[in-house]
Amino acid sequence: MVYLAACTFPDDGEEFDYCLKVPHNVYTSFYPFKVLSRHRLERVEFAPVTILYGGNGSGKSTALNVLAQKLGLSREAPYNGSCFFEDYASLCSVELRAPVPQTSRMIASDDVFQAMLDTRNLNQGIDEKRGEVFDAYLEAKRAKVQLRSMEDYEALRRTVRARSRTQSRYTREELGMNVRTFSNGESAYRYFTQKIEENGLYLLDEPENSLSPALAQDLAQFLEDSARFFGCQIVIATHSPFLLALRGAKIYDLDADPVTVKPWTQLDNVRAYRDFFKKHEKAFEAP
To answer: What angle do CA 116, 122, 124 make, to 5 degrees?
Structure first.
């Protein structure tokens, strides 16, 4: 499915005209100006899966942030917009093939990291509370209660519950299920699978962060299936070979000058991996 058909960015001349109007003795950076135009990225035409590939500073995240701004997509983590960001976005334009569904969103690495941090903080609170529950369990189990008031009745009820349960069961019932059941990588993977729904446009900024190679391949398969079978359009900023190899992906090489569409096997980052493993090929043959 294609909701977003194309996006255009200002060329070097348009940016030059804008910057002439800005006092140069006040600002030392015009970000996001002079980023995408450096390698003459002026137009992106989108497929069901489109990848913006490039090294640090290539502008792939900048392009996603501009798209999210122009499309009004929901997002969770703040981003480096700068005082010129809205002016730059106003010089950009998007072309739609279909209305963008409300489920659409931008997901950045910071969103995933914040979700994992929230889980860690929640678990820390549970761990601290667990000691208190252990003490309460032992106290209730050993208590000798005589019924004289409603408070005595509540104490008796706690004692009966403690004596009829193991310590672990009593604690689970008091605290609820501890949410620490997944590693950071598994939690990151689950974050994507929970946030990406059917029939939506999703902008993903370096989703491979925190993922093991195996989970990165699982995510690639999930994204491929979401685009092929569940009405999703995916735009990814990445340099992960596992995501670059997505079947049918249209890949823009933001390191090239001018920016061009390339097959994933021709990208410098992928070829560096290939050369490394070929160099050490015999090591894999050792018993």
So the answer is: 105
d(CA 271, CA 266): 7
The CA distance from 269 to 76, in Å, is: 30
Structure tokens at 71: 């499309």
pLDDT tens-digit readout, 233-283: 999 999 999 999 999 999 999 999 999 999 999 999 999 999 999 999 889
Percentage of residues of the chain with pLDDT beyond 70: 74
Cα–Cα distance, 56 to 91 (Å, whole number):
24
Exposed, middle or buried, 240 (CB in 10 Å: 0-12/13-18/19+)? Answer: buried
Strand order in the sheet with 260-261: 105-107, 201-205, 233-237, 49-53, 250-253, 260-261
Cβ-contact 223, 246 below 8 angstroms: yes
Report CA-CA distances (Å) from 213 to 38, 47, 108, 210: 32, 25, 19, 10
Q: Is the dihedral of CA 18, 39, 74, 123 positive or negative?
A: negative
Amino acid at residue number 133: V
What's 236's DSSP letter?
E
Buried b (16+ CB within 10 A) or exposed e, 16-42: eebeeeeeeeeeeebbbbebbbebebe
